[in-house]
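Q: What structure does this chain adopt?
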Amino acid sequence: MALVIRIESIRDFKGKDNIENACKYYISSINASAKEFQHTIRKHWAIENKLH
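A:
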């Protein structure tokens, strides 16, 4: 089974009058709840951001 996950995000840049809206799409073969996907995706990006 394959799932398509759509994440909508809003970023507010501190000190600027700029707000960014974005939609990100992911494909997964894991059957999980929306809350579990959100946690896993946030965890992944936290690791990515620490590497840069």
